[in-house]
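User: Let's play a game. I give you a shape written as tokens, and you guess the letters that built it. Ready? Here's round one.
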């Protein structure tokens, strides 16, 4: 009786002698819950991995497509061969001057004026002949009186400046045209500014203003010219603007100091601002005075209005 109500003393585990009792439903559900959670986790991982693989495949396909579009790229493995590419054309070289020493006109000049004509070249059907400076009038006169192709029209007379050629930095160019024969020829004379070249006004009177223009802008002297003076710039202008060593921007020189009115600092700043914004350039009395100096009673050019 004394042992009633006390827990049994610990002892060796006793094996059940009777049939096993089934577990409670709650215990079964608790044991089955972890198994269902593991299955759902593994299924979501599989879906995520499948999406990653799909994205990788799309990126690889896009990369292969870009590589296939690149010029000169090899087609991807297994891809069907595309249409053959057109052959690449090599860039054709432009026309080049050729020797024209055998041209009939050159031969006639060499036979008529021995030693006056130098090298001759042909470019796009036009003959260019280099002439000795001291014989230019003879050559021009002979070409004008030529029986087969009389060059009776001086279409242009211009000049080119080559500063690297120290002895003869200027090349005077004569463009002649034969109206009856519809032929052209170009004469070239290499000179320096001081010695210059003889005037051809005795052959073509129209060379008067053309030679004056070359003298004005390049400073090349034309001997025996009837009225050699500036034609575009003021008579007391210093320098020749078409030379390669002439400043491209406006510079203060002796002529501007003598002729242009002096602006105050405020007026000069206002002028620079208006010119920078493209506004009216002639908006103060001093600027109008400068305009009158340049016009000298001549017709106003459209860009000055």
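Assistant: Ready! My guess for every position:
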């Amino acid at each position: 009786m004394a042992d009633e109500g006390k827990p049994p003393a610990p002892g060796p585990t006793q094996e059940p002698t009777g049939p096993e009792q089934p577990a409670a439903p709650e215990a079964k559900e608790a044991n089955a819950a972890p198994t269902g959670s593991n299955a759902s986790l593994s299924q979501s991982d599989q879906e995520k991995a499948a999406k990653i693989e799909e994205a990788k495949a799309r990126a690889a396909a896009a990369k292969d497509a870009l590589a296939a579009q690149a010029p000169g790229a090899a087609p991807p493995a297994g891809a069907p061969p595309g249409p053959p590419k057109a052959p690449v054309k090599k860039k054709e070289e432009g026309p080049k001057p050729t020797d024209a020493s055998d041209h009939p006109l050159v031969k006639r000049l060499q036979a008529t004026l021995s030693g006056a004509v130098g090298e001759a070249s042909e470019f796009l059907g036009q003959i260019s002949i280099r002439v000795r400076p001291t014989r230019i009038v003879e050559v021009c006169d002979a070409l004008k009186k030529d029986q087969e192709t009389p060059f009776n029209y001086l279409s242009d007379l211009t000049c080119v400046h080559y500063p690297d050629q120290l002895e003869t930095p200027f090349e005077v160019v004569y463009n002649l045209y034969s109206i009856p024969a519809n032929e052209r020829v170009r004469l070239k004379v290499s000179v320096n500014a001081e010695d210059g070249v003889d005037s051809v006004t005795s052959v073509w009177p129209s060379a008067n203003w053309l030679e004056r223009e070359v003298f004005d802008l390049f400073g090349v002297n034309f001997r025996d010219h009837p009225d050699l003076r500036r034609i575009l710039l003021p008579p007391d202008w210093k320098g020749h603007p078409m030379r390669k060593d002439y400043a491209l921007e406006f510079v203060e020189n002796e002529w501007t100091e003598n002729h242009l009115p002096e602006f105050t600092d405020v007026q000069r700043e206002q002028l620079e601002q208006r010119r920078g914004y493209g506004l009216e350039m002639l908006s103060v009395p001093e600027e109008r005075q400068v305009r009158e100096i340049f016009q000298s009673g001549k017709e106003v050019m459209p860009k000055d209005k």
